[in-house]
Structures are given as C-alpha cells and as structure tokens.
Amino acid sequence: MYLIVAGLAIGVIIGSFLQVDIPPEFARYTAVAVVGILDSLFGAIKASVENKYSTRVFVSGLAFNIIIAIIITFIGDKLNLDLYMAILIALTIRIYSNIGIIKTAAIDKIYQKHQAK
After folding, report:
1. Tens place of pLDDT for every residue, the chain, 117 residues?
2. What is this structure's pTM?
3. What distance in Å separates the CA atoms of residue 41 and residue 62, rounded to the nearest whole number?
4. Would you say 49 and 102 are in contact if contact means Cβ atoms under 8 Å apart?
5. How far apart, in whole angstroms, are the C-alpha atoms of residue 89 and residue 98?
6. CA 8, 15, 64, 60 torsion-angle sign
7. How would you classify residue 80: left for phi > 0, otherwise alpha for psi between -120 and 50, otherwise beta?
8. Are 46 and 102 in contact (CB under 8 A)?
9. CA angle 1, 11, 96 (to 5 degrees)
C-alpha cells in the first residue's frame, strides 16, 4: 500500500517538472483515466483503513476503471454524446464517498487513542 502511495507521489513530482502537452482530442480520455486512477487509489486507502486491502483487487480495479471509462468515453464520442461527464460524475461521487469513510475512520482512531490515555 505504501509503495502505491509513494509511486503516486513520485509520479506527481516528476509530472510537475515535465512539460507534457495533451492534444485536445485526448483531453476527455485523459480526464476519465485520471479520475479512474484517483477512484482506485482512494478505494485502496479505504480498504486499507478497513483492513481489507488486496493488491490484486487494487490492480484489477484500477485496470477495470480505466478500461471501462475509456470505452464509454469512446462510445460517447462515436454517438456524439458527452458520456464522459457521466463517468466523471459517478467516479467523483465514489471518490467523495471513500474520502468520507477514510475521514471517519481516522477520526475514530484518533478518538480511541485519546480515550486510551
């Protein structure tokens, strides 16, 4: 779990120093891929907090999120519909849900440590 977070942090640091231009026609695909990655990451953190983390589940969920999101975005582009917005909304709702669970678990853990003293 810590390797995943460390890898993400290193990737963000390297990415902030590199100048990468994404063509406008791929902006939708990049957006859904990034949000899919964030959803998987926060899902992994939530699972870790609940002591249910599995690397296999994380990796397969990450691949599944990205592939399905890109396929739906592609279908939307072919039908001239903005289906990528539905994906972004759905994944963002899941991200906020996971953050809420992580926050509650962290507060409970702090409260339990405080009560133990």
Report:
1. 677 778 878 988 998 888 878 888 899 999 999 999 999 989 998 998 888 989 899 999 999 989 999 999 999 999 999 999 999 999 999 999 999 999 999 899 888 888 877
2. 0.80
3. 8
4. yes
5. 14
6. negative
7. left
8. yes
9. 60
